[in-house]
């Protein structure tokens, strides 16, 4: 048994391990090549998060999905580079919106160079992703553009908040389907499509990726509350400090509204206060970590991961299918 990819994913077949490792190494080289510029400063800024590492969750899914066709087909690695570049670009923009100080254990780009450079660097990465995508054909361009539209729509809906009368939890889960599920689904779709897999396999893996992506983001929501910066590579409670309504907070608000318990109402008031104050922020984190809302968010993470696993049922048994199923376990493990 060998460990590859994010979260210590184990692969029990030497041929599959070799394909995945070779593919991920090629993706890494492709990312470095795609982020080079004739202007040294742009190269430095564009490679800032590439060199910081990261889980390479989406490229790994491309490699595993490609196992259901020809994993060595010429479009597999470039499509993985496209989805990771797109993901990296969104991180530059997210950190500006969230005023984050740390990303992947290093200073965020906006902390190091300011908001303007961070936003423009994200735009540069989007441009480079589009350049690579153009070589993959019009169908790939259409798929990626639709996913990108969903991603941006999800971000806008998160910023705007739910419409009057809409359940905030349902609204938030829809947001995550756009913000995170869309690009993870495309990762699986590209891997299968570029490898020449059957259309039914492509559809199955796309649906798996959509649900896995939501589970992955819900695990991040839990980690934002429950982890320390060493575990997550981000400052804990960043979303909490910025007033971003992640699932544990939404469950807390729902409980406070439904039952009116004084301790819940008090914690909601604390979260709604100025959490730029470090003491108040630390107190809100401490109390939310002990609240049942955090465990409820963990259960939701498990539910989406199990839905993803169930989507794999029609696929032929084998090491690739087993590895995709183990990804569901890995995502849940991140959330504790």
Question: What oligomeric assembly is this protein in?
Answer: single chain
Percent helix: over 70%
Strand adjacency order, main sheet: 1-2
Distance between the termini: 23 Å
Order of H and E elements? EEHHHHHEEHHHHHHHHHHHH
Mean pLDDT, to the nearest integer, reads: 91
Strand elements, count:
4
Name its key features.
single chain, 336 residues, mainly alpha, two-stranded antiparallel ribbon, 4 strands, 73% helix
Task: Characterise this structure.
73% of the residues lie in helices and 3% in strands. It has helices at residues 14-34, 40-46, 48-51, 57-65, 76-98, 109-113, 115-134, 138-160, 168-194, 199-226, 229-232, 238-241, 247-259, 262-271, 278-289, 292-311, 319-334; strands at residues 2-4, 9-11, 102-103, 106-107. Strands 1-2 form a two-stranded antiparallel ribbon. It has a two-stranded antiparallel ribbon with strand order 3-4. Strand 1 (2-4) and strand 2 form a beta hairpin. Helix 10 runs antiparallel to helix 16 and helix 13 packs across helix 16 (292-311). The two termini are 23 Å apart. The mean pLDDT is 91.
Topology:
Blueprint: E1 2-4, E2 9-11, H1 14-34, H2 40-46, H3 48-51, H4 57-65, H5 76-98, E3 102-103, E4 106-107, H6 109-113, H7 115-134, H8 138-160, H9 168-194, H10 199-226, H11 229-232, H12 238-241, H13 247-259, H14 262-271, H15 278-289, H16 292-311, H17 319-334
Antiparallel strand pairs: 1-2, 3-4
Helix pairs in contact: 1-4, 1-5, 4-5, 4-9, 5-7, 5-9, 8-9, 9-10, 10-16, 10-17, 13-14, 13-16, 16-17
């Amino acid at each position: 048994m060998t460990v590859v990819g994010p979260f210590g994913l184990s692969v029990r077949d030497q041929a599959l391990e070799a394909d995945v490792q070779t593919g991920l190494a090629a993706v890494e080289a492709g990312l470095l090549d795609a982020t080079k510029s004739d202007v040294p400063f742009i190269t430095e800024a564009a490679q800032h998060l590439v060199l910081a590492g990261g889980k390479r969750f989406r490229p790994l899914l491309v490699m595993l999905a490609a196992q259901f066709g020809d994993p060595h087909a010429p479009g597999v690695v470039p499509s993985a580079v496209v989805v990771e570049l797109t993901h990296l670009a969104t991180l530059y923009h997210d950190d500006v919106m969230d005023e984050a100080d740390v990303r992947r254990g290093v200073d965020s780009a906006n902390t190091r160079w300011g908001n303007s450079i961070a936003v423009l660097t994200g735009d540069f990465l989007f441009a480079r992703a589009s350049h690579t995508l153009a070589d993959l054909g019009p169908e790939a361009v259409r798929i990626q553009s639709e996913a990108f539209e969903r991603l941006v729509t999800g971000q806008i809906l998160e910023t705007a908040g739910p419409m009057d009368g809409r359940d905030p939890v349902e609204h938030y889960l829809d947001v995550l389907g756009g913000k995170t599920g869309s690009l993870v689904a495309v990762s699986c779709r590209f891997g299968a499509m570029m490898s020449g897999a059957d259309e039914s396999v492509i559809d199955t893996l796309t649906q798996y990726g959509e649900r896995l992506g939501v589970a992955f983001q819900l695990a991040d929501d839990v980690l934002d509350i429950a982890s320390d910066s060493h575990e997550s590579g981000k400052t804990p409670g960043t979303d909490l400090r910025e007033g971003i309504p992640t699932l544990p907070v939404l469950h807390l608000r729902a409980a406070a509204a439904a039952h009116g318990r004084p301790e819940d109402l008090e914690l909601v008031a604390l979260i709604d206060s100025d959490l730029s104050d470090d003491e108040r922020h630390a107190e809100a984190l401490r109390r939310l970590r002990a609240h049942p809302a955090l465990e409820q968010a963990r259960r939701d993470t498990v539910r989406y991961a199990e839905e993803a696993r169930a989507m794999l049922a029609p696929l032929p048994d084998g090491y690739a299918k087993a590895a995709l199923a183990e990804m569901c376990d890995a995502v849940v493990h991140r959330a504790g």
